[in-house]
């Protein structure tokens, strides 16, 4: 979010409109990540939930943690009540196809709350380990909740798959002295 071009895209009224529908409040973009699968950068991502949030400071609470630090920013695994206040919009810079490692989700899995890794894998197995591929055209936007169980396979194509993943919250102040930082 510190990159001016990324911050400008994140504050585009069209994206804010979509995030506002999911959050029912004025959305605040707080983190952006560029995912770029290419022939030289190609990886597998196992089933997981996005449970770590960037915070301004550590808090002494059993609901938050374990803690880590990345590039001087504190991150903690967050409780479900905090993660429910976040939505991610994935802006597709290239076509996403079944061949270039698209996002794969287990529909409705975000309603199960924050799960341990073992619970995530067990739920994926109960669903047949398949999930649903999210094939999105260039310029398309996919909205997802952090607790949605998702993964992606390696690309079998030479076509790149770049996605700008922007996270929005309904407020930076989450309560009880916990505040998101813009990362």
Can you list the strand order of the major beta sheet?
1-11-6-9
Question: Could you give the order of the helices and strands?
Answer: HHEEEEEHEEHEEEEEE
At CATH level 3, the topology is Jelly Rolls
In CATH, the architecture is Sandwich
Number of helices: 4
**What is the tally of beta strands?**
13
Determine the strand fraction and express it as a percent band: 25-35%
Secondary structure category: alpha+beta
How many structural domains can be distinguished in the coordinates?
1
Q: CATH H-level name... which superfamily?
A: q2cbj1_9rhob like domain
Radius of gyration: 16 Å
By CATH reckoning, the class would read: Mainly Beta
Mean pLDDT: 95
| Shape by Cα distribution | globular
Stretches where pLDDT falls below 50 for ≥5 residues? none
Largest β-sheet summary: 4 strands, antiparallel
What portion of residues is helical?
A: 10-25%
End-to-end distance: 6 Å
How is this structure best summarized?
This protein is α+β, with helices and mostly antiparallel strands and 183 residues long.
Textual characterization of the structure:
This protein is α+β, with helices and mostly antiparallel strands and 183 residues long. The chain has one domain (4-179): Jelly Rolls. It contains four helices and 13 strands. The strands form four sheets. The protein has a four-stranded antiparallel beta sheet with strand order 1-11-6-9, covered by helices on one side. Strands 2-10-7-8 form a four-stranded antiparallel beta sheet. Strands 3-5-4 form a three-stranded antiparallel beta sheet, with no helix packed on it. A hairpin with a 2-residue loop joins strand 4 (67-70) and strand 5. The longest helix is centred in the N-terminal third of the chain and has 11 residues, at 13-23. The chain is globular, with a radius of gyration of 16 Å. The chain starts with a helix and ends with a strand. The model has no long low-confidence stretch (mean pLDDT 95).
